[in-house]
Prior knowledge:
Layout: E1 5-10, H1 14-26, E2 30-36, E3 46-48, H2 51-57, E4 63-66, E5 75-77, E6 83-85, E7 90-92
Parallel strand pairs: 1-2, 1-4, 2-3
Antiparallel strand pairs: 4-7, 5-6
Amino acid sequence: MNGSYMLAVVGVGKIACDQHLPAIAANPGFTLVAAASRNAQVESVRNYTDIGALLAAEPGLDAVSLCAPNSTGGTARSSNGKSTSRRRMVYWR
């Protein structure tokens, strides 16, 4: 590892754009390399339309930050069957 965690963000909405992405960019301990969202993209990173595609294509990720609204029911599930609660905001490989 080069001193920073390779990170992806799932859910690119207003709060992610206004708060999560700037905080990640300001922290030298994280390198944002990918994002997954049905309706938005993040410039300068690889973008996917769902978490399953992201996890399948990005085996080198150290963590995934789930930026999902309460209305999603609090759980994200990938096509490989792994799931995580919204309360555990970062999924570690």
